[in-house]
Amino acid sequence: MTRKNRKVRLFRERYPEKTLRLLYRSDLEKLGLKYAARRPALAAA
Fold first, then answer.
1. C-alpha 2: how far from its chain's center?
2. Of 28, 22, 25, whose CA–CA distance to 9 is shortest?
3. Could you please report the per-residue DSSP string of 1-17?
4. What are the tens digits of pLDDT across the range 1-45?
5. At residue 4, what are phi and psi to the nearest 5 degrees?
6. C-alpha of 34 from chain center
7. Which phi and psi (to 5°) does residue 6 adopt?
8. Is the separation of the CB atoms in 24 and 42 below 8 Å?
9. Residues 20, 24, 27, 33: is their CA dihedral positive or negative?
10. pTM for this predicted structure
11. Which residues contact 30 (CB under 8 A, 6 or more apart)?
12. Taking a C-beta distance cutoff of 8 angstroms, is the pair 22, 1 a contact?
């Protein structure tokens, strides 16, 4: 079990009423690629 998964499991045991979404680095990279194409280019200042 990874450290992150252990922390999530303990959090869910202590706070069952709270929702927690776990994101991994690969998830963030995929989101970055998905939404980077939609982002308008910044104007040179």
1. 16
2. 22
3. --HHHHHHHHHHHH-TT
4. 688 899 999 999 999 999 999 888 999 999 888 888 676 666 555
5. -65, -45
6. 14
7. -65, -45
8. no
9. positive
10. 0.56
11. none
12. no
CA 45 – CA 18 distance, rounded (Å)? 43
Sketch the domain layout of the chain as residue ranges: 3-36
Q: What pLDDT, on a 0 to 100 scale, did the predictor assign at position 35?
A: 85
Cβ atoms < 10 Å from Cβ of 11:
13
Site of tokens 């999530």: 8
What letter does residue 44 receive in the DSSP assignment? P
Rounded distance, CA 6 to CA 2, Å? Answer: 6
Measured between alpha carbons, how far is 32 from 45 in angstroms, rounded to an integer? 24
